[in-house]
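Researcher: Please generate the 3D structure of the following complex. Treat every line as part of one assembly.
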Amino acid sequence: MSPTTAEPTAVLSANFTPKSLAELDTPALMVDLSAMERNIARMAAFFKDKPAKARPHSKTHKTPQIALRQIAAGAIGVTCAKLDEAEVMLRAGVPSVLIANQVVGPFKTARAARLARLGELILSVDSAENVRELDAAAAREGQPLNVIIEVDVGMDRSGTRTPQETLELAKLIRGLPNLRFRGLMGYEGHAVMIPERDKRAEAARLANSKLVSHAEYLRANRVEVEIVSAGGSGTWEMAGSHPGITEVQMGSWVTMDAHYKKIIPEFENALTVLCTVISRPSPERAILDCGMKAITKDFELPVVKDGGAEVISLSEEHCKLKLTSRELAIGDRVELIPSHGCTTFNLHNELFVVKDNEVVDVWPVAARGGFH
Amino acid sequence: MSPTTAEPTAVLSANFTPKSLAELDTPALMVDLSAMERNIARMAAFFKDKPAKARPHSKTHKTPQIALRQIAAGAIGVTCAKLDEAEVMLRAGVPSVLIANQVVGPFKTARAARLARLGELILSVDSAENVRELDAAAAREGQPLNVIIEVDVGMDRSGTRTPQETLELAKLIRGLPNLRFRGLMGYEGHAVMIPERDKRAEAARLANSKLVSHAEYLRANRVEVEIVSAGGSGTWEMAGSHPGITEVQMGSWVTMDAHYKKIIPEFENALTVLCTVISRPSPERAILDCGMKAITKDFELPVVKDGGAEVISLSEEHCKLKLTSRELAIGDRVELIPSHGCTTFNLHNELFVVKDNEVVDVWPVAARGGFH
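Model: Done. Output below.
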């Protein structure tokens, strides 16, 4: 990734007339453009001299304009969770998409083969059944499919578990006419949220070593392994520095959230939800027009951006604040920092792009609302 | 509500060709039409002889076809949480909409006045500031607005707190030329989830008594109070039987969820999410293609409909099952019952309507994606 290739203003909409924050109805999902650009530059600087490349996870933002900025800064493509996201990213011009989940069933496998015509598409597999149905779908559509094997590196979720199992699946893939075996992936989801950096680094090292050992076992058995993909935002530097890892899949870092800020403080919180005070039922209480349908609490409660108040509960359409040192009147605006950006982006249709307290663009969260 | 007025098949789409469940891609939000119709009939039978009327909360389903069935069974209108929902419901032909939240700020108040031309719209207020801006917006749009006062009946959220405060606000409203004072509402949100029926009934009784006492205080001061609206799914019978309550706002009952099923077992779980097994990493483990972006866990984890397996975790795009007595292969389908229907509907664009294991219609979750 080279920060010099980025053209930050190139993807701002030509016809958008800047407006003030006061002109936004609430709740509104906003990104601080300068803070996000600094996050992208920080990531790019790290990968500049590394053998590993960045393949940021776009499940976080689901927004092509963010993905294209990541590509412009040197990312080799994006990671996606599902075909709806992959389609949006491929159609937006992202050159390579890795789907980090299994693509299973007749609808999805046929669609994957059709989407593979739009650009490089790489699917992760962990079972013989899925491999065979992908080969059959690729044959029917006349479009070969790239696959990598997902290895369970300790999360106890999807993935092969032993080097022998990985090797057998790789041999099966290589024996099928319509699939191309590209490598391995693992996700150390059990490591990314460990608060202590030392413990997190050790858990990531163990996970990445397991993944690389599977790759080495395949190579020792004369199976070529090109891609070894791993990492999340909490372990981005660890995966990016681990010998043998070729790609890193981190997602949240680009716009960040209050939860990850405690784990990787090197990135800035660029994402907020602008809210309005709708009720002041008592001297220490303010109610905002923003609940779980606009900002999530699956990690923890959101955080009040400029302090002076604390979120004490979030119901479907209300956020209850305890005021500590801030005075708020009915109609005043408050910015909340989501605790979990990935699940909050998913609730919004649009991302308002803010620079120097002015709304300079609106980007569609284009892959929102896609389930498949 | 009279069950005899319902025309259950009238709102099925004329041109939809029934298909099998196997023809649905997953995850897919589904409603069992017969179970939902029995829930509606049960509700209608209760309200048939009561002075109180049903005004079901449509924030749960956000689906006009469900609202219209509730109206056909005797509901006087719907409750909504915000203007985007109100607009969808009014445009679909719902005759009366009560917004149970405060509508604050220049965009929302102007829009409310414009929407009020489409049908009866009733807004809840709890502050002088909001009342004055609503009157000004109504004046500018040349459209009077109906308002009710929200009373805090014990939830410590929005709402006036003393009868004197309620009276002063009512007098302010009555003195403004463009507002029409219609009554009071309260939401006993602190009571609706109490598991023990006796304790729940007592908490509801206290809350409803407080609300009615405010209404009586206003009447004693020569302020007419037409509407006294209260209740949630956990307290629907209690609110519907409480002397002086004129409307009940319960939402979840119509399609239900796993959490409310423990509290109001008289309604059936009609709502499920159809999922596909994408990985079988170990003998007791199956992974589904359905995570927090298709089914929520803000109450608790979802429940496997036909048993034999237990949800042990839900990440963004994966559901991890522990298999107890069920055999599942890659590609098999599993139905999950959401723990919280209101937040799950909000994630989906479409509701697949199932009868006798056949998909008989697709209803748009039309108010999904509306934030304002």
